[in-house]
Amino acid sequence: MxxxxxxxxxxxxxxxxxxQRVWLxxxxxxxxxxxxxxxxxxxxxxxxxxxxRRLLSSSGGNAGLAxxxxxxxxxxxxxxxxxxxxxxxPKALIGRQGAEVVVSGRSWTEANEHxxxxxxxxxxxxxxxxxxLLWDGHASxxxxxxxxxxxxxxxxxxxxxxxxxxxxxxxxxxxxxxDVPVVAVETExxxxxxxxxxxxxxxxxxxxxxxxxxLGARQVSDRAYAxxxxxxxxxxxxxxxxxxxxxxxFADDHRVIVEPACGAALAVxxxxxxxxxxxxxxxxVVVCGGVGATHAQLVSWAG
Length: 303
Ligand SMILES: *Cc1c(COP(=O)(O)O)cnc(C)c1O
Hints:
Elements: E1 9-11, E2 21-26, H1 36-49, E3 54-57, H2 62-74, E4 78-82, H3 88-96, E5 100-103, H4 108-118, E6 123-125, H5 132-148, E7 154-158, H6 163-174, E8 182-187, H7 192-199, H8 222-230, E9 233-238, H9 240-254, H10 260-271, H11 275-279, E10 282-287, H12 295-302
Parallel strand pairs: 2-10, 3-4, 3-6, 4-5, 7-8, 7-10, 8-9
Antiparallel strand pairs: 1-2
Helix pairs in contact: 1-2, 1-5, 2-3, 5-6, 9-10, 9-12
């Protein structure tokens, strides 16, 4: 059994051009609206098999929603601790899955401390991006791509803490696709991978100032940084405005709403700012999705 679904791999008429086909891996169509369900679903199944009696998460975003969904499907209670700053809509979406939502603390750090204080020996904490179980689950995306379409000449994806990137790179390696460059996209104000590449090691950002909150990990995982030394990875940073514009265009072209976190990758797929993007005959874009933005919100961000 797996909790995620096989998503379509669509050849995009809107993005393709003569000499280049653009393939969209439609993770926005997962039951929880993002790729997170692959890794989180797999991790929760393994943790349940190892005897976990309750699942805990400190994410008020797509990771917390995926844990809530996985817990419901597995018949395990879920508690999600979120800071006071979390908006009503994500709390309602998580609550609708039957999870208990506890509001505690002014920031994620304080919410996470409260989560640790709640933890019982039979509880399992599900991390949003830094766990090999998550990467194993995310890697299934590339198994599907290999079965659904041609070998890509480059892959574009968004990076927050780097869980998606670790899973995709693991999947590429498993298929022997060591030569396929990965273009890792972040927004200004959430560019923790770009900071790590510049510093030569993962370093914390002083603050997250991007509206792409799903990319807002202050520091990328060690494994995500290590991949940049083992595989061709190109770090690219776009503005919030570019990400939002790409979301609105994507909604018009493909009739699907995604968060600016995903729009960042879409913007790069459209702008093709690197030779590896312009030269690729088959370009794979991970449409990672996200439920954190409505169409009205995207319009208001676009100003
Ligand atoms: C979590 C998330 C990301 C970033 O994923 P990481 O594994 O943290 O790098 C990007 N887009 C969406 C929609 C997400 O939910």
